[in-house]
Amino acid sequence: MSGKTDRPEHAEGGRWEVSALLAELRRRISEHEIPPGGKLKEQELAQEFGISRTRVREALAALETRGLVERIPNRGAIVRRFELGQVFEIYDVREVLEGLAVRRAVENADPGVWTAFLEECDAEFERRITSGQIELYETYFNRLRKTIIEAAANPVLKAMLDSVQDQTQIIMRRVLVLPGRVEHGLTNLRRLLEAMAAGRAEEAEQLRRLGIRSAIEDLKRYQRFVL
Amino acid sequence: MSGKTDRPEHAEGGRWEVSALLAELRRRISEHEIPPGGKLKEQELAQEFGISRTRVREALAALETRGLVERIPNRGAIVRRFELGQVFEIYDVREVLEGLAVRRAVENADPGVWTAFLEECDAEFERRITSGQIELYETYFNRLRKTIIEAAANPVLKAMLDSVQDQTQIIMRRVLVLPGRVEHGLTNLRRLLEAMAAGRAEEAEQLRRLGIRSAIEDLKRYQRFVL
DNA sequence: GTTTACAGGAATGTTGACAATCCTGCCGAC
DNA sequence: GTCGGCAGGATTGTCAACATTCCTGTAAAC
Fold it and tell me: For residues B164 and B99, is the Cβ–Cβ distance under 8 A?
C-alpha cells in the first residue's frame, strides 16, 4: 500500500517518520540484516534517517517492548539473541494462537478462499519447490498465513501473532531447509486446507497446531545444525 | 537540599524511576483511578514524579505499545476506552492463553499445590463469598492465577497474559458482581482444581477455557448493566 | 440567537546541548 | 610478559528551551 520513502531527508511527515524508522528496523532485524547481538547506535540511525536522537530513542524503546532488542543501561541497544529454549517458549504460545486464528478464519470467511489456495498447491507446485525453489513455499505460506489472520478479524490476535512472527522469522527460515521439512509441511498444508475448505473448523485448528509442532520437532532434532 | 524536588535518598536510580512511573500508571489505570478517556498530561506527571517531560513521554510510549493508552498526535495521551467488541476479541485470545498456562502448569508443578488450593475452597469459604465478600473471591482467584502462570514457566506467555489482564481487569471486576456469577465461578473452579490435582492436564485446560467462556457469556447477557 | 473569525493560552512535538557512563588504547609497576 | 590504573574518545541519559498544534473564550456579523 504505502510506498517506501526513497529519501528520508525531506522531513515534512512529522510523527510519521518514527513509525517508518520502526518498520525499517523491524525489517532489518527480521531479515537478519543486523545480526543478533548487533549494536543499534542512536546517532548513526539519527543521521541516516535525518531525525533527532530523541525520536530514534522512541523507536528503540518500542522495539524493546516488542522484544526485538535488548537495552542495557548506558550501553545501548543490541538485537536480542534468542536461546533455543526461548524459541520453544515462543512456539508454545504461537501454536495456540495460530490455531485460534485458523478456527476463526474458517468460521468467518468464505470457503472458496481456501479452495483457491488448495488448487494452487498442485503437483507441479510441489515439484518446483522440492527441486530447490524453497522461497516459493515461503512466499505461498506467508500469503496463506496473512489471509488467515486477516479472516480471523481479531486485531489483538493479529498483534500478538505479528510479534511472535518478528521474533522467530529467521530461525524458522533455517528450519525450512532441513531434509524433508518442506515435503512434510506441504502434506500438512494440504490436509489443513482441505479441512478449511470443508468448513471443519475444529479439525483445521488441530491440523494447524500439528503442523507447528511438527516443525518444532524438526528444529529439536536438527538443533545442532540450525544454531 | 532546599530545592523543590528533594527526593528520598534512594532516588538516584536513574532509569529505575521511569519504570516506577510506568508501574504506577499501570496501577492507576487498572484500578480505574484514572477513568477511560481520562487525560494523562505530561507536565503534570513530570512535576508529580520530579522528572522531566522527556522521561514521562517514554513511559507514555511504553503504555501505548502495551495498549493501555491511546496517543493522538498533538492531542496527548488518554486512557484507552474499550468497546465491548474489543473485550470479546481480547477474551478470545485470553481463553487459549490461559488454557495453555493451565496445561503447562499441571505438567510442571507438584499436584499438592492444587490440592492446597482446593482445600482452601471449602463450604465456609463459599458461604463467606456468597454472603457478600466478593473481594475474597477476587483475591483467591488472583493468587491461584498467579501460581498457575508461575508454574507454566513461560516468560513469553506470562508477558502476554499480563498484557490482557491489564486491559480487562476493570470490566471483569464488574462481571463478578453479576447475579450468580461467583457461584458459577466457584463451581467451575472446584472442577478445575480437581482435574489439576489429579494431573489431568487436557481436562484442566478445557475446564479453564470453559470458565472463561462462561464469564464472557454472563458479560454478554448483562452487557447493558456492565457498560 | 447562531455562526464564524481570531487572538490568547495551554499542551504537545522536536531539537540541540550538557552530564554521566562506558569502552579503548597506552603506560608504568611488578 | 602480565596486570592494573588512567586519560581520551565515544556513546548513552537527561534536561530545559523553542516550535508547532490545538483548545477556548470573546466578539463581531448575519
Answer: no
Q: Quick one: average pLDDT of A92-118?
A: 98
Residue B14 pLDDT? 55
- Cell match 494523562: residue? B40
Domain housing A57: 16-79
**Where does the pLDDT of residue A76 fall: very low under 50, low under 70, confident under 90, or very high at 90 and above?**
very high
Average pLDDT over every residue of B2-21: 53
- Are B99 and B74 part of one and the same domain? no
Near-strand D residues (CB closer than 7 A): A 14, 39-43, 53-54, 57, 71, 73-77; B 14-15, 17-18, 51-55, 73-75
Any idea which nucleotide's C1' is nearest the CA of B5? D15
| Per-residue model confidence (pLDDT) at position B86 | 95
Q: Please state the rounded mean pLDDT for residues B183-205.
A: 97
* Structural contact between residues B39 and B78, judged by C-beta atoms closer than 8 angstroms: yes
Residues A216 and A172 in one domain: yes
Report CA Rg, chain A. 19
- CATH number of the CATH domain containing B133: 1.20.120.530
